[in-house]
Amino acid sequence: MDGWGVLEQAGELARSGRAFALATVVWRQGPSSGRQGSRAIITAEGEVRGWIGGACAEPVVIREAQRVISEGEPRLLLLGTPEQFGEAVPEGMTVVPIACQSEGALEVYIEPVLPAPHLVVVGRSPMARTLAEMGRALGWRAELIDAPDFTAGDAGRRSMVVVATQGHHDEEAVEQAAAARPAYLGLVGSHRRGAALLGYLADRGVPKDQLDRVRVPAGLDLGRTTHEEIAVAILAELVQLRASGAMPSPPAVAGRARAAGASDPVCGMTVTEDASGRPLAHGGVTYYFCSGGCRRAFEKDPGAYLKRETRC
User: Fold this and answer.
1) What average pLDDT does the segment 92-119 reach?
2) DSSP-assigned states of every residue in 99-161
3) How high is the mean pLDDT of the chain?
4) Under a CB-based contact definition with an 8 Å cutoff, are residues 163 and 155 in contact?
5) Are 46 and 66 a contacting pair, CB within 8 Å?
6) Which residue from 61, 115, 75 is spatially nearest to 257, judged by alpha carbons?
7) Which percentage of the chain shows pLDDT scores above 70?
8) What's residue 225's pLDDT?
9) Regarding predicted confidence, which is higher, 260 or 216?
């Protein structure tokens, strides 16, 4: 996949709501296999789509990309030996030593691409349409769904659902929304209407922990307002909750990914913990290596390298 193909697929992933990182080679020192302008998508699970470099660079880029996804902040990496850069490394860059036999080096920019907030507005009133339009103006994924068409499958744990059906299928819409357990569930209506609706759903057997999540009325309390101002009040509450950290963040990287890797005991480079890492069992521990040369060196005198690890 070439650079443009990577960008096209990145657009598709972003629209699907998946978190990933986009890595771009911005400088190289030959004979590195990476090329300026080479790009790759790295998912939270460590899957690589595209090309960013060979066996030396890829495990490091994957590991750092997973950190970028988890932290939500971009990172600029210099991959090579410290001697190659000396004191010329600009502030803010991260130097990651790698001991490639090719003696090449790469500068890689890794940026997070996090899912846009997902807003689901249930209803067909002017206020519902206004709220959806305002959400889209913020760059959110905003959907407007009529109550009879809405199901729990239209929302997820990170969605924000606003039920604005105004008496048309309110009970069914809230029940479906509550079953999805979204990050936010608000009902447009008075306190009295909300209490009656939630009481009805409780009698129907809807779990209390689901009903306790429903905010009635949705939005900041502005008193008597127009439908446009109600939309602003609801959107303001959602923005406020996101800014305060009350909304869930993108899922953190779960466990150790395929290529988060181990450290080569000979050269210290990050290598994958699979067959490509040339595994070797010694003393009940499996070690991994960047190359056949490092593996042979370890086989010849394991104690020399294990002692060095102990001192470190």
Assistant:
1) 80
2) --TT--EEEEEEEEEPPPPEEEEE--SHHHHHHHHHHHHTT-EEEEE-GGG--GGG--TTEEE
3) 84
4) no
5) yes
6) 61
7) 85
8) 79
9) 216
Distance CA 176, CA 228 (A): 26
pLDDT in tens, 175-226: 999 999 999 999 998 899 999 999 999 999 999 999 999 999 999 887 777 8
The 3-state DSSP class for residue 54 equals coil
Neighbouring residues of 137: CB distance < 8 A, sequence distance ≥ 6: none
Question: Is this model's pTM higher than 0.90 or not?
Answer: no
CB count, 10 Å around CB of 99?
Answer: 16
Residue type, 55: A
Positive or negative torsion for Cα 56, 58, 63, 68: positive
In order of start, what are the domains of the chain with their CATH numbers?
3-113 (no CATH), 118-243 (3.40.50.720), 262-311 (no CATH)
Burial class (CB in 10 A: 0-12, 13-18, 19+), 275: exposed
Instruction: Please report, as a single letter, which amino acid is at residue 102.
Output: S
